Amino acid sequence: MKWREAINDYETFLKIERGLLQNSIDSYVYDILRIQKFLNENDIKESPIEISQETVQNFVYQISKELNPRSQARIISGLRNFFDYLVFEKYREANPVDQIESPRLGLKLPDTLSIADIDLIISAIDLNYQFRGVNLGHRNKAILETLYSCGLRVSELTNLKISDLFFEEGFIKVKGKGNKERFVPIGKNTQKLIDIWLDIRKHIDVKQESKDVLFLNYKGNQLTRAMVFTIIKKLVEKVGLQKTVSPHTFRHSFATHLLENGADLRSIQMMLGHESITTTEIYTHIDKSQLNKVINTYHPRK
């Protein structure tokens, strides 16, 4: 079995069996292509079913000189999954990555915004902004409010459908990782902003494939993830906020603010769509950091 054949089979598995989005599949494949490039550069003629643990170890040693520990760990994990698949399909008898340890990682807490930061960014949106005759200011405000008030991933936001809106019940239906669906509460204020955008959307020449897509560009096509990043980047620059802010920052802020205001971890897990509560537990570390800050600031024996 050649590398291209194995990668194509694996892509199909990730798409059909695991239900991953194309962006996630591309990330997995990119890391596999790195080891294929390593083999070519070192004139190593080992196929995916022949590659040895020693070769993989040499590859890991090479990337350890080029990448930070977190990137190394991601690549090792991706390769382990790839070779697990080959073992599962009986192309190999053993996984050459099984005995290779990932670098130790310190706890990386997600970046968050304060409520004041979020208000500052959203208030900077020009509601009169138009492009090619389409008012995009109200769209942008609805986008940011939806990201923050519902804690969505950017791909979940761009894939949101009009048919996913259940405003009378106070929920939206979200399709997350692995095509798993969940219902997330949506507040009245965010509903109102979306309704304003829907009125504007009626005057756009919507492309057939995007008829049910909620957020569109001025051409009537589905909004891209990259454009959401751009909208946020420009607003952050506009207000002069000295922080790195992405769509995911709004999601992290959503979870952090809920926890700080007394929400239970299980409810936050369900709203974020985390498969395991251990993923959600990272926000308890953020909360503890805030408690340490309070002690160090206000306690007389600090």
CA-to-CA gap between the ends?
64 Å
Tally the structural domains: 2
Radius of gyration: 23 Å
The geometry reads as globular
> What's the main sheet like?
3 strands, antiparallel
Tell me the series of helices and strands, N- to C-terminal: HHHHHEEHHEEEHHHHHH
Share of β-strand residues: 5-15%
Strand order, main sheet: write it out. 3-4-5
CATH topology group of the largest domain: hpI Integrase, Chain A
So what's the CATH class of the largest domain?
Mainly Alpha
Give the fraction of residues assigned to helices: 40-55%
Alpha plus pi helix count: 13
CATH architecture of the largest domain: Orthogonal Bundle
CATH superfamily of the largest domain: Intergrase catalytic core
In terms of per-residue confidence, which ranges show pLDDT below 50 for 5 or more consecutive residues?
A: none
Question: What structural class is derived from the secondary structure elements?
Answer: mainly alpha
What integer is the average pLDDT?
Answer: 88
Protein name: Tyrosine recombinase XerC
Domain Tyr recombinase: 108-296
Domain Core-binding (CB): 1-87
Keywords: Cell cycle, Cell division, Chromosome partition, Cytoplasm, DNA integration, DNA recombination, DNA-binding
Tell me briefly what this model is.
This protein is mainly alpha-helical and 302 residues long. The chain has helices at residues 3-16, 22-41, 53-64, 69-88, 115-123, 137-150, 154-158, 188-201, 225-239, 247-260, 265-272, 277-280, 282-298; strands at 130-131, 134-135, 165-166, 171-175, 181-185.
